[in-house]
Amino acid sequence: xxxIIIALLMTFGIFTMVSxxxxxxxxxxxxxxxxxxxxxxxxxxxxxATQNSPKRQALFATxxxxxxxxxxxxxxxxxxxxxxxxxxxxxxxxxxxxxxxxNTREASLGAAGATVISTNHTLKAEVTGFETVYATIxxxxxxxxxxxxxxxxxxxxxNGSATSSYAKNHSLDGTVMGFGVEKISENGxxxxxxxxxxxxxxKSVTNAGADSKFTAVLNDVSGSTGRISIGxxx
Length: 234
Prior knowledge:
By secondary structure, this protein is mainly β.
């Protein structure tokens, strides 16, 4: 769906190239912020206690790129209103390591008469995509608000007992809301400062190995970022 939106944005730009300004903006961004979440590993066996992690907070920084197209191409009065509204696509330009989490539990799974063997389980995670499709509305020429949908692609690497196996590739969906200030020069170069709030849905993953009674749960992720951007308006 997001690829289709990008294609439409580019098509609108091509169709409006006959004018002096085509209403397309491209740019690069750097942002820094903090996200927090918690997780657990639970079992369908009521004799096995759920392992819960405390809430964890982490600072992170990303660099990315974006493209936007305003809606001034709409006919009549809609175009006047649309000139203050833009649709955009944003993505980070690199992978982002989320670090490593460690958990220790008994390999016996609580089975009666089984030998108790404590096993260390480790999980490494890396964000390989952080895509946002969004809309901005200019309240004033220098002030805008922003809202959109977020998709986060996460790759994980699990190490533990031979009886445990979790999926490696995951996709998380969420929303972003924010506001920013923008300064545009006469040559079309622009500069932005922006604040965003993120709410990303959690996910449950069932163990695909012999420990299939176990489920790893990532609770909802939330946080905020500050972003600085520079770009060119065409």
